[in-house]
Amino acid sequence: xxxxxxxxxxxxxxxxxxxxxxxxxxxxxxxxxxxxxxxxxxxxxxxxxxxxxxxxxxxxxxxxxxxxxxxxxxxxxxxxxxxxxxxxxxxxxxxxxxxxxxxxxxxxxxxxxxxxxxxxxxxxxxxxxxxxxxxxxxxxxxxxxxxxxxxxxxxxxxxxxxxxxxxxxxxxxxxxxxxxxxxxxxxxxxxxxxxxxxxxxxxxxxxxxxxxxxxxxxxxxxxxxxxxxxxxxxxxxxxxxxxxxxxxxxxxxxxxxxxxxxxxxxxxxxxxxxxxxxxxxxxxxxxxxxxxxxxxxxxxxxxxxxxxxxxxxxxxxxxxxxxxxxxxxxxxxxxxxxxxxxxxxxxxxxxxxxxxxxxxxxxxxxxxxxxxxxxxxxxxxxxxxxxxxxxxxxxxxxxxxxxxxxxxxxxxxxxxxxxxxxxxxxxxxxxxxxxxxxxxxxxxxxxxxxxxxxxxxxxx
Length: 460
Ligand code: ARG
What we know:
The protein is mainly α and 460 residues long. Helices cover 62% and strands 4% of the residues. The strands form 2 sheets. Strands 1-2 form a two-stranded antiparallel sheet. A two-stranded antiparallel sheet has the order 3-4. Strand 1 and strand 2 form a beta hairpin.
């Protein structure tokens, strides 16, 4: 047990209490951030004349050697220490003696942990953004390659109207674009430095909080020291954004699973991204998509957990806040991993264009356009709807598509039909006549793709 606060205690901490209280098992995640914060803090202490420059040099050298030894496996972060802050400070004192005891001047573990968590989260926000960017690049490539790949669009999971694969992918581009923008927004709002807040009330030392904030890449110090040590809003925002990313990935996964089913057969998942069955030799399972769908729950769980932890905490720091870490780390690791795996699966997936086309063609997806055709021939839409309904019933009975009916058969049901009906309801016409912004025609999609490309370039 290496603790920093033994002075006012007369008895040794109970073993179970020590274990219950300790956070080293998980806060070692931000070991590097802890060192980074200490470096800047100690430089500032020296600049402000609070410690000597000789002491600063010794502390910096000590911190360097601890970091190096941990990175190169010579020093292990063990549960002998209560948390990562104690680990660094105790090792520093062991190595350099007296000057090491000055590191914590004008600082509390409360602002230290607030800083470490913020620095770590900030780098994760950036990482998520990078991962999402790679996913958007793959989606954009599929959009470009599939401007003419016709497939059924669905509502209620029933074939509705023909669209293109390009258009379908474009919908996901928009979802993940908003996710990227959320990362940008969160980063901007969170980028204020809690270091220098002290335990809660600030400190009597003349700390230069503007200097430390700037050195650590923040836009400035946070405004209120009590808020500085107890704000976890940024983490809640990030977990909420990660939950939305997972919700999007899960919807996409659900579609991949459906498309990969024997009944649909729209896609072929690459062997390297699917798995087999131990008993059924014919199986090739979409496990990656299923796992991504399945893991969504644990990310939502992390968000719910933190919201609940924070809701009853009076100002300022309370130990409850130590609970902000484990599930949040898990959610970050899970979501970033899922984006990466999903991107790999999508990149290597192939689309069965012919099957998709046939599915659209045989699914009465041109029924709306057939009704619109009759409107063009002077029939009121409600009557046209009912005539086409009758035609659909006739086709179902015969096991054919509307296009398979002869002009005589069509005229028998409604004399307004003429030879131009076949052209009017071809899959290509149905798709390419939809020219409004955001619609599925090739023309609209070419415009959309140009905008998507510009967006991706603007992220560089
Ligand atoms: N392990 C603590 C946490 O994660 C660090 C801060 C401890 N501060 C304190 N006053 N006990 O929140």
